[in-house]
Amino acid sequence: MEVTVTTFLFASLIFLTLRSIYRLWYHPLSHIPGPPLAAITHLYEAYHDIVRGGLYVWEIEKMHDKYGPVVRFNPREVHIRDPYYFNTIYCASSLGKRNKDTGFPGVHSVRNSLLTTLTHQKHRQRRALLETVMAPPSVKIWEPTIREHIAILMKRFSEAPSGIVDLNAAFAALTADTVGRFLTGESLGALNAPGFKNDMHEGSKSGAAGIHVLRLFPAVAGVLSCIPLSVLRFLGLPLGQWLEFLAVCGESARKALKESKETTNAKGQETETKNAPAKRSFYAALIAGSTSDEEQTIARLQEEAMVFLLAGNHTTAGVMTLAAYHLALMPEITTTLRKELATLPVPANQASWKELQELPYLTGVVKEALRLSQGASLRSARISPDRDLVCNGIVLPAGTPLSQQTVFVNMDPEIFPNPQCFDPTRWGKPAPDGKGLDTYLASFGKGTRNCIGKSLASAIMFLTLAALVPEFDLTLAKGTKIDLMRWRDMGTPFPMDLNNQEVKVHVAQAPASS
After folding, report:
1. DSSP 3-state percent helix, strand, coil across the chain (nearest 5)
2. 451 among the known binding-site residues?
3. Which fold has domain 76-509?
4. Residue ranges covered by each domain of the chain
5. Tens-digit pLDDT profile for residues 6-50
6. What is the pTM of this model?
7. CA 242 to CA 238: how far, in whole Å?
8. DSSP assigned state of 26
9. How far is CA 512 from CA 68, 410, 471, 473, 505, in A?
10. How far is CA 135 from CA 4, 183, 401, in A?
11. DSSP notation for 448-470
């Protein structure tokens, strides 16, 4: 036994040594600058993202400061810090194919969603189907439903105990109920819950702690999926709540499939029933538009819905929290917004999403909140499968996972002077290259895989601000502060103090306009 153990250890040492030599000097990426330790092992990345908690983004920033705009930050991936190259990595179909990297979280455990679809062609097929229900004309149909939920939120603001509201919880409840209703036809009930209690949001916050484990050790998700939910809950594992959401989404998917069959006659034509309006939901549209049985499975529907709920809830709520935080921090923004909203031909809370998008200052507020919130901050690598790329004179071989985190575009001081400042007026000015600043707003992503839910998110943000600003004055509660320059990357930006994620404000009825 002793000989066997010694032999194993010696063989392992030889293997690791040879692999390190290969990765440093013979790997296709060996010519790309970066820390040698990062090129040798993923454990360097794991230490900063798992042990230290989502801080590798700032180590990558240090790498760029030392090595330049192109760095090899782990054995197989390259990161680029060049905002003018962002649209090459995340490009339109006309500029080339882009596959998703297998290292993206969920690729191995949530295989059926649009977000985790690997190949360019398969993604294109799935996206074409979903765009019919996520496009602006479809979202416009849901404006009355969005307003219903906003009205509930405004009522809760006016009834807030001691006039204090946690913006994070409030906006997470709004997005959870709205997105849930959009997806399945049913609200999650978070807006009416005491303290805006929202299990999905809490699960996504606690589960975010495991996102880097899933990314670097994908087999963990497979192991956890085999453990009963009751055991995961007992152990207090955050991923247990995510799996519980998956089960809830699965039940909604079964219901949607059943209703679809009940409202379709033997000839495959829809019949008029009392349930017909539910066919306008995301689920119903996905089922009705699918041309293959593969796209109508329970797994496909439940995973798609879970990803939309988790991704859309935290990011959209984060943008609105940041916008409202700055309304409280900078009262002059509220004053300017009220003057602009007063120019509408109807009360602001009755204006359409389209009308609100035509207001330049309100649009600037939304875009600044999007920029500073970063959207999905996690690296989402793309692969050019059939063509080498070149950046800063460095050849990036075909098949290499390439990424650029949104923060390095959204906070670039050349494109956005004083990037930490919340300045809604900057959006009326061009970028240094003469292009509109929208070209460099990275929060929704770019190219063929940009955020498919951006129209729904935009409608929620515009309509909510139009209702909130004229009705309430916001002031920051004692101790409330958001650090825009230093945060943890947990898929979206999280505060350095993970035990203090509340953003509290005092809410008071605005004085009647004269």
Report:
1. 55, 10, 35
2. yes
3. Cytochrome p450 (1.10.630)
4. 76-509
5. 898 999 999 999 999 999 999 999 999 999 999 999 999 999 999
6. 0.91
7. 7
8. I
9. 55, 37, 9, 11, 21
10. 62, 14, 29
11. GGS-TTHHHHHHHHHHHHHHHHH
